Amino acid sequence: MREVALLVLGAGPAGLAAATEARSQGLDVLLLDENAAPGGQVHRGVGEFYRPSADAPGAAQAREGLALIEAARASGAEMRGGATFWAIEDDLTVSWSEGGTAHQARAGRVILCPGAVERALPIPGWTLPGVMGVGAAQILLKTAGLVPEGRTWMAGQGPLLWLYAAQLLAKGGTLAGIIDMSPAGAWRQAIRHLPMALMKPGPLLQGLSWMRRVRADVPVIRARDVEALGDGKLRGLRFDGREEAADLLLLHDGVVPNTQVTRALQGCAHVWDAAQASFRPVLDEWGNASLPGVMVAGDGGGIGGARAAALSGRIAAIEAARALGRLTAEQRDAAAGRPMLRRRSEMAPRAFLDALFPPLGMDRVADGTVVCRCEEVTAGRVRAAVSLGAQGPNQLKAFLRAGMGPCQGRVCGPVVHALVASSRGIAAGDLMPLRTRFPVKPITVAELATLK
Ligand SMILES: Cc1cc2nc3c(=O)[nH]c(=O)nc-3n(C[C@H](O)[C@H](O)[C@H](O)COP(=O)(O)OP(=O)(O)OC[C@H]3O[C@@H](n4cnc5c(N)ncnc54)[C@H](O)[C@@H]3O)c2cc1C
Prior knowledge:
This protein has helices spanning 13-24, 59-75, 134-144, 159-170, 186-190, 194-197, 202-217, 260-264, 306-323, 329-346, 350-356, 379-388, 393-400, 413-424, 445-449; strands at residues 2-9, 29-32, 78-80, 83-88, 93-98, 101-112, 116-118, 131-133, 152-157, 177-180, 220-222, 227-230, 234-239, 242-245, 248-253, 255-257, 270-273, 278-281, 294-296, 370-372, 377-378. The protein is of the alpha/beta class. The protein folds into 3 domains: 2-117 and 256-327, 3-Layer(bba) Sandwich (FAD/NAD(P)-binding domain), CATH 3.50.50.60; 120-253, FAD/NAD(P)-binding domain (3-Layer(bba) Sandwich), CATH 3.50.50; 361-452, Orthogonal Bundle (Arc Repressor Mutant, subunit A). The strands form 6 sheets. Strands 1, 2, 3, 4, 5, 6 and 19 form a 7-stranded mixed beta sheet that branches. Helix 1 runs parallel beside helix 2. The longest helix is centred in the last third of the chain and has 18 residues, at 306-323. It starts with a strand and ends with a helix. The chain binds flavin-adenine dinucleotide.
């Protein structure tokens, strides 16, 4: 089997920076990503399809992305796009599929950089064609320059909602309205984190400028609940007792770490992050997880944003170089000093943002609303299963198959978790997270059969 010193999984800012730094430390590096082009969520399509004009929202970030991509390409790391990883074994054998063929390599060390996923926002009618996540709409914008036509509404809350709205308007798109579902009093919780956030005011000022730009052109209406209406396809919305026609509804409720792979690794410890209302792997300051040789960098280890992700990728690569005998502990500490300080500074606004945009919670989700789309399980059935004795998301699989469909819990996992906790009246952190299993991505038997 092929051997490689360092396998980096995910070519977003964290993975790109990790690969570049590891190469500069003399390690041979294999970098895998299921997307055809590197860049991850934030720098998706940068340099290929996504070329925002100099003053467009996100333009400065796109330039940073291009620099990261070019540095990784120039570093000599082997970068493989269209490569979906689906398993890691105890001896750090990594399995992935590429072009219909399965591959394996054994690594001296693995840095997982799987990024974040959008937290689903279940509302009545959200499974209708014509309703999708803001993240998916942004992918279409970044990879194909597509802006929606017709009456487009957005609903939910979180920084990405405002960023996408600003990006859409800058591209010449229009929005019929935004239903702001963020809890009205959240700023009271957030305000105590403001002094810390102001140590790095850039992201806050940027966020305010997106909001101002959007509010100047788009009606923003506060509402606690929204319902998508239609028969076979979206035709309208209902909120606050009012109905509006709609062709497209984009939903958003923040992002959570993508822990699909780390949760499948037996013995890999996770902790509930109350501020971000999600699980994340337990990591030391270098990104070492609780299993030997496994490291995590970027949003997959806790949401921190693109710059913090790149810095944590760099720091993890420096530590990997120490673990693989390229650096002494003193050399590692010296090399990581500045990136560590910069990461701390990039994280300064985080607590403020987390408190300002807490997830919308499950009490508002009506019994008839589907929460697991793959298996068509409603909130009411989850609540009924809990009253029959299902203690957590793992037991719920046996009751209802929730989390066992093609998404393997990526979409429904956080929702079902929060719903079980609220039904049992306990803190979400007191429940075991949904256990995932390898393969974490669907593969065909034909692909498996190509493994030699
Ligand atoms: C939908 C969405 C849109 C976002 N848009 C923005 C934005 O415009 N601006 C912004 O500042 N922040 C955005 N964010 C937040 C942003 O993702 C992060 O702050 C930043 O990209 C984190 O970098 P990362 O390297 O940790 O992860 P990412 O950039 O997410 O990179 C992770 C990479 O891992 C790959 N990957 C994951 N699982 C597998 C697998 N099994 N096999 C192969 N490859 C895999 C993914 O394809 C991806 O390229 C967005 C988040 C989401 C969820």
